[in-house]
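Sanity check. The docking grid for flavin-adenine dinucleotide depends on where the pocket ends up, so I'm generating a full predicted complex first rather than guessing from homology. Inputs follow.
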Amino acid sequence: MNFDLDKELEEYSKKVREFSLKEFGNDVASKYDVEEKYPDELRLKALKEGIIDFSNPWKTMIGIEEMCRVDPGMGISVTVPYFGAEVLMLHGSDYLKENYLGKVAMGEKIMGLGVTEPGGGSDVAGLKTVARKEGDKYIVNGSKMFITNGTIADFFVMLARTSPPDDPKKRHRGLSVLVVERGFKGFASNKLTGKLGVRATNTGELILNNVEVPAKNLVGEEGKGFYYIMEFFNISRIFVAAQSIGIAQGVLDRTTEYLKKLEKEGEYVGEERKFKLAEIATRVEASRLLMYKAASFLFNYNPNPILTSMAKGYASETASFAAETAMEITGQIGLNSEIERFFRDSKIMEIWEGTSEVEKIVISRMMLKGDKSE
Amino acid sequence: MNEQAELMRDTVKEFADKNLKDLALKVEREGIPDAVKEKILEQGFVGSNLPVEMGGAGLDSLSHRLMLFELAKVSPSVAAYVFFHNDVVLKQLSSGNKKDLIQSVISGKDSYALSFSRLSGEKIEDGSNGAIRRALNEKANRYIELDASGTIFAGEGKAEPVKNFKPLGLRGMGVCDFLPSSKEECGTKEDLENILAVSSGDIAALFLGIAEGAVDKAIEYTNVRKTFNEPLKNYEPVAFRIAELKSELEMLKFVLFDEGSDEIRMLMLKDLSASLSRKATKYALQFHGGYGYLEDFGVEKFYRDSVALNAIIYRPVEDKRILASKIYFGKSGFI
Ligand SMILES: Cc1cc2nc3c(=O)[nH]c(=O)nc-3n(C[C@H](O)[C@H](O)[C@H](O)COP(=O)(O)OP(=O)(O)OC[C@H]3O[C@@H](n4cnc5c(N)ncnc54)[C@H](O)[C@@H]3O)c2cc1C
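Predicted complex below; grid placement will be based on this.
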């Protein structure tokens, strides 16, 4: 067994780190954080400089980790314009790929994923947005909540109900994915402000009032939307694990530097704080190994949802553990440093793309059905 | 609970419900409004714990804890504002026998900026212009500060806003870079250490108030929010966690509200309260899902405040060392 990255990945990771350090140091990151502003110019720069590279999912994963290690809010902002792209890649028609996905990849458009609604995010099949077929279009009514890129995306990959479930216990049937443009009549959005963290990312609420969506904007087959979205989460959760590990590693780097400085200056550090550092470091390594294992299944076309949920769940808990512990170790110094921002950013990891509780539901349900994590 | 304490608790509860609850979000966004500060002063919360001969109300320590606890449940920033003035500034001014200055705080003429870590001797960079960097209380007109010789100074000056910075916690108090323009001696570091040594109960009251504020919100929300057609309270991982938090909270409140608790017990209580507040506020946020991550729902502030307060006033090494030395009947540790 060999845990080294291959040369190409190693070089890519270095390049991403250099880009991140150059483009979003603390001053830049804290400005966007305070102003709650999306750094659009950074998105374009990252595309131009080859930081966004769809050729290899390992690159995406490692790139996300490296960027979030420098700053989570800015790092996520660089990679999130493509959020939901895999759904179109895997199931979109040529028309959708060309007209939507292609333009996102060129930097001409930004996309978003609309699943969560005001009434619920964990219970995906309980959604209330309805898409009624009328001739060659769907009429969509409902609302979506907490949607990343909500007020800046040009279009959304959106889950809606196209037919009532044949059996109330099978609510996941009858859901479909549509591509909904911001420009369609009846579409409105509001920016949600006052987030605890990841404040450089844009979050909005979408309101859909008789929005007319051409039938050709249906992704894949009608009624299969729930499965497409779950399949997507099984991919994207790996990337949330990478965000989380980036945060935890970033916090670890900074805390280690702080304690090293104290020791060098002859200040008291104490074993208690050193042990806490050791604990963060151990959890970061463990999370990363779990992510690599889950990724190796997924990227070899053999996804294992148990492993993916374990990787996401554990890494996200590690991120907030690391950030909270770092605040304890660094005290007032941490409060006035980047660690404070990492701390606020870290908490979202346990919420989005399946809360920690939802990951445990997935893991335990599948294990009791006889599935395994190997 | 004695009658005075009971009365205090009811008064503060009523005050917080009437004057703070609806403004709690405004406090976070814009700082404690002047009208709220005036009402706090009118109620006599500031200076309440000082002896009568010093111009205070001579409130017993249990009643004082109850006051901080009830305020923190609704607005940790407001509670911290009162705490820092009552437990640090006014007591220090008392030990320097500065009756006029005390009166100016109690009347609302003065309020103080302070950097707690600098007061406890932690090395923090100075602003290039001699400012006290990132001091608490953005609206202060005076400051209190420790110098290298171990003398505590107080004086006038100007609070400059900190650009491009939003503090993690206690946003209602805000932070500033404070530029001193005058100074006068006001006691010693030893005085301050003695003052802090008896503030554990009050600090525990802040932490437990924060914990209860957050747990109450979580109970309310998980009662009504439904997922998979069931209220959240029907899920064991939700209900059992809340039950555990509530159990710990009730046990610790029992000690907090006990008149007979001595300082060492209060130190133990502070330690447990600090850790409970972190845990409780984190779960409260988590059980609110995405809504928990937004300021509007008034739950993330408890999480921020708990961690910020920990960083600001909790001294894990010093306090644990005192506890350990009590248990081992002597010195424990290498320094
Ligand atoms: C900043 C931000 C960005 C986001 N971006 C997007 C986006 O781009 N697209 C999108 O579709 N969504 C997005 N979300 C939504 C996010 O995915 C949801 O918030 C999340 O899935 C949780 O859903 P909820 O908020 O409705 O919480 P709920 O589903 O209401 O859950 C509340 C709490 O109850 C717990 N819970 C629920 N059911 C159970 C159970 N059966 N057992 C035990 N515990 C349970 C949950 O774990 C949680 O702690 C975003 C959210 C935020 C905050």
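Relevant for the grid: Residues A 83, 112-116, 120-122, 146-148, 195, 198, 203, 348, 351-353, 355, 357-358, 361; B 225, 227-228, 232, 235, 237-238, 286-287, 289-290, 293 surround flavin-adenine dinucleotide (CB under 6 Å).
Also worth noting: The first strand of chain B starts at residue 112 and ends at 113.
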